[in-house]
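Pasting as-is:
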Amino acid sequence: MTDAPTSAAFRCGYIAIVGRPNVGKSTLMNTLIGAKVSITSRKAQTTRHRITGIQTLSDAQFIYIDTPGFQTRHSNALNKTLNKTVTNTLDSSDVILYLVEAGTFGAADEQVIALLPKDIPVILVINKSDRVKDKAVLLPFAQQVASKFNFAAVVPVSAKLRFQLDGLQNEIKRFLPENEAVFGEDDITDRSEKFLASEIVREKLFRFVGDELPYTSTVLIEKFEQEGNLRRIFAAILVERDGHKAMIIGNKGARLKDVSTQARQDMEKLFGGPVYLEIWVKVKSGWADNEAGLRAYGYE
């Protein structure tokens, strides 16, 4: 690990990224740091954990925390835990990015505003601004949302197209405390490669199976080995029922092969080396000794 940079004028702090589900929080963080460390999906509530992304510049270190989308529609145990993660993150941050989708603001967005602390700088980030055909409506929309809270700044962006992200980081840096860097300058996350591998498989799972797959499905990395630059990863997708297992495997194993191949490609890009990946699908009731799932080789 490279030594962390230090300077009397160096700024470093934690930036929480919050908003309702599917406003682009994970995409924003991934684009800001230049690496995919938080999974993205059209399926709402894909992010289950606090994911930390790190970007270090010559004069500042930005420690972004991607939080689960604040859930207001269902009050089950999982969502209560996710919401608690969000509120705890807000209180321990130096700066907060509150994301909304350009042209869209509803009750769920209002409920997230109610959580925002008054003593921490909050920047209103209007994401997906490139999708608004009539740019004249952006200003009144921004004014409408900005009237609901005392925001430190308002920045329209497109995380996907990198529009205005340099301007956003300049605004963030204004509010970061003068501190030495917490992480090394080459670090991009505090999560282990094993954790990132499980998240990548989970992302591809939601991408290929979509809304048919329950949130209770889990990805477990059973073995993670490294030989030189080669990583050998053995993963298990744990599901509730045989029907879910068949759904993931697909016709003659085609869907599971697609999941495995795309997951392997993302891992190789993130880890910077070849990956040998095996994925099994197992029913949770007997997954520990059930080896009957179809094996999919992602490394060809």
